[in-house]
């Protein structure tokens, strides 16, 4: 790409990418990135994979908590999300998310080659995290999953609905299904309001073609579960209406990992890290403690 054209590329919000932290993925699309660095030397790296329709900026509170424990946190807006390029919340192949995650992780581990790497994923970001770790199991010290998308909700995945979705995906892939109802994101009305008013979130309907990619990701995960041996920690609310908790139980039961943990929050909704303040605080403490327990002891004073 000529330098002039490269310099004139702008985010969906109209900001030139030369003014934004970004990487360029294998398809030549610019992905907006965020980096949260601890005050002192980092003890580990944590890559955050955000959920469908949202963006990585909403993880600033999670990142700052991890920073307090000398963890270096980084993330990007997936293709078609937030301040990244790409058709809004649509993708030809779910594998693109995984490929981009590995590219970004490789970039940062190149700068900090001796540090252990963790992935933290929420919702669809949970599915991305699982499949990323499955692709390179030896590269990751552990995976944290908050309300992950592992299985499709049973009522949306009946054989007839799956068949219908496949037919529609071929005939009218741009057809949109329902939108995400913000009231199921959190029990905290302030968080629901923040979600609704955030212009970087996608508030439109989900395309049939995108739904098919989520289904294929869930099928891949189900196939991979018996082969998983890496450490993981799942946190899930038992009133989550957006990602079925049954998938979290399935992964906890079927994975071969000897280091695995599932914590269920009674009455909690989908975004545990943005649920009622006491739940969100507990989640941040639990996640920090779990990662720290898996780090080598700090050397020197």
From TrEMBL:
Q: Could you tell me what this protein is called? A: Serine aminopeptidase S33 domain-containing protein
Q: Which SUPFAM superfamilies match?
A: alpha/beta-Hydrolases
Domain named Serine aminopeptidase S33: residues: 41-276
The protein's matches in PANTHER family, at most eight in alphabetical order, are given as: PHOSPHOLIPASE-RELATED
**Gene3D superfamilies reported in the protein's UniProt record:** alpha/beta hydrolase
Which gene is annotated as encoding this protein in its UniProt record?
MGLL
Q: Source species, please?
A: Pygocentrus nattereri (Red-bellied piranha)
**Which InterPro entries does this UniProt record tie to the protein?**
AB_hydrolase_1, AB_hydrolase_fold, Hydrolase_4, MAG_DAG_Lipase
Residue ranges of the TM segments: none
């Amino acid at each position: 790409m000529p330098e002039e054209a490269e310099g004139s590329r702008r985010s969906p919000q109209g900001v030139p990418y030369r003014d934004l932290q970004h990487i360029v993925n294998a398809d030549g699309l610019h992905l907006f990135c965020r980096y949260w660095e601890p005050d002192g030397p980092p003890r580990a790296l944590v890559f955050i994979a955000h959920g469908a329709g949202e963006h990585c900026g909403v993880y600033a509170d999670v990142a700052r908590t991890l920073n307090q424990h000398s963890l270096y946190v980084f993330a990007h807006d997936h293709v078609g999300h937030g301040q990244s390029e790409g058709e809004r919340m649509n993708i030809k192949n779910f594998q693109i998310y995984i490929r981009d995650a590995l590219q970004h992780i490789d970039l940062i581990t190149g700068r900090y080659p001796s540090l252990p790497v963790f992935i933290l994923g929420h919702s669809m970001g949970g599915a991305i995290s699982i499949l990323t770790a499955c692709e390179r199991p030896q590269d990751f010290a552990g995976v944290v999953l908050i309300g992950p998308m592992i299985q499709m909700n049973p009522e949306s995945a009946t054989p007839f609905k799956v068949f219908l979705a496949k037919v529609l995906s071929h005939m009218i892939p741009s057809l949109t299904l329902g939108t995400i109802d913000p009231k199921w994101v959190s029990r905290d009305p302030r968080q629901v309001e923040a979600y609704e008013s955030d212009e970087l979130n996608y508030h439109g309907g989900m395309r049939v073609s995108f739904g098919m990619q989520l289904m294929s990701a869930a099928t891949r995960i189900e196939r991979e579960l018996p082969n998983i041996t890496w450490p993981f920690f799942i946190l899930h609310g038992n009133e989550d209406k957006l990602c079925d908790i049954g998938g979290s139980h399935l992964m906890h039961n079927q994975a071969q990992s000897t280091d695995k943990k599932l914590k269920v929050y009674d009455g909690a909704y989908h975004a545990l890290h943005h649920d009622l303040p006491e739940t969100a605080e507990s989640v941040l403490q639990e996640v920090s403690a779990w990662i720290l327990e898996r780090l080598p002891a700090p050397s020197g004073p």
